[in-house]
C-alpha cells in the first residue's frame, strides 16, 4: 500500500507497518510502501482486504508480491468492486490519459492562438496597406491640384499678355526692338 509520510504518522497508533520500502520521486515526493495491518485480535492485512474486495489496484511497478497479484486476479475473476465496472482503468493510466488530454487541449489552444495572431497580423497588414494607398492617392491628388493651379496661373498670365510669345514685344521684358 502506498502511504504518504504524514498519513503514516497519524495512523501509526491504529496500524502496524511491515516490510517497509521507501520510494522517492521529485514528482511524487516521498512515499512509504508497506503491508498495513489493523492492530486488533485478527491482525488483518488491509492491503489484502482492499484487493480482495476490488477496492484497490495492485501496481507491479512498486511491488513484486505474487500474493497480492493473485488476490487481485481473484477479485477480477469474481468481478468485485471496481472490477464490476467494464471500463475501469488503473489510476496511473488515467493520469497518463489526463496529461495527454491536457497536452492536446493546450496544443489546440496554442494553434488557435497562432491562427488568431496570424489573422490579426493579416488585418494589420491590410489596414497598413489601405492607409498607404490612401496616402499615395492623397499625394497624387495634391500633385494634380498643384499642376492645375500652375496651368491656371500660366493661362491667366498668357491671357493678360496680348503681346504674343516674342519677348521683345513684351513691355516688361528688357529686350527692345529698334
How would you characterize the overall build of this protein?
With 178 residues, this protein is of the alpha+beta class. The protein has a domain at 2-88. Helices cover 54% and strands 13% of the residues. A 3-stranded antiparallel beta sheet has the order 1-3-2. A hairpin with a 3-residue loop joins β2 and β3 (29-38). α2 (46-52) packs parallel to α3 (66-77).
* Largest beta-sheet characterization: 3 strands, antiparallel
Q: Report, as a whole number of angstroms, the end-to-end distance.
A: 130 Å
Mean pLDDT: 76
State the helicity in percent bands.
40-55%
Shape: rod-shaped
Q: Unreliable runs, pLDDT <50, ≥5 residues? A: 1-13, 22-26
Mind telling me the C-alpha Rg?
Answer: 46 Å
β-strand amount = 5-15%
Order of strands in the sheet with most strands = 1-3-2
Q: Order of SSEs, N→C?
A: EHEEHHH
Please tally the β strands and state the result: 3
What structural class do helix, strand and pairing data support? alpha+beta
Number of helices: 4
